[in-house]
Amino acid sequence: MTQPKDKNKKKKFRKSIKGKSKAYYTKEKKAKHACALCKNVLHGTPHSKSIGKISKLSKTQKRPSVAFGGMLCSKCRTQITDEAIKIISKEKKEQDLELKTKNYVKQMIEMIK
Predict the structure, then answer these.
(1) Which of 59, 66, 75, 105 is least surrounded, with the fewest CB atoms within 10 Å of its CB?
(2) How do the pLDDT tens digits run along the chain, 113 residues long?
(3) For residue 36, with 0-12 CB atoms within 10 Å meaning exposed, 13-18 middle and 19 or more buried, which class applies?
(4) Is 3 a domain residue?
(5) What's the pLDDT at 90?
(6) Which backbone phi and psi does 104 adopt, to 5 degrees?
(7) CA atoms of 75 and 102, how far apart (whole Å)
(8) Residue 62 in 3-state DSSP?
């Protein structure tokens, strides 16, 4: 019976120096980061087998240095900036926003001001 610690790992066989094959367990790669609104894959964010490799990277290598970088894709980011500008120019009210975009629009308004 497999042990609980080995259930989420891939089993690979390698030959040792003595010529016998031995089983090794390797972790799978983590899933790619997804946009918080549309769930599309985010580009420019690393994903690795271990958290240790990612934590050793610098801040600029971990996520893009754009507003909401590492959280939202470029399409959603442009929609939120457009809605924030419409609210600032009083073309639109905050009550008309969707619930899932409301917090991001408020943060964008604070960044613009």
Answers:
(1) 59
(2) 778 777 778 888 999 889 999 988 887 777 889 999 999 999 888 887 777 888 898 988 888 889 999 899 999 999 999 999 999 999 999 999 999 999 999 999 999 98
(3) middle
(4) no
(5) 93
(6) -65, -40
(7) 16
(8) helix
Look up residue 68 and give its two tokens: 């909401």
In a domain, 98, yes or no: yes
Q: Token pair of 82, please?
A: 């457009």
Range(s) of the domain holding residue 54: 30-112
CA distances from 97 to 23, 40, 53, 75 (A): 55, 21, 39, 17
Q: Which residue has the tokens 């271990």?
A: 50
Tally the domains of the chain: 1
Dist CA 2 CA 24 (whole Å): 13
Looking at the domain assignment, is residue 13 inside a domain? no
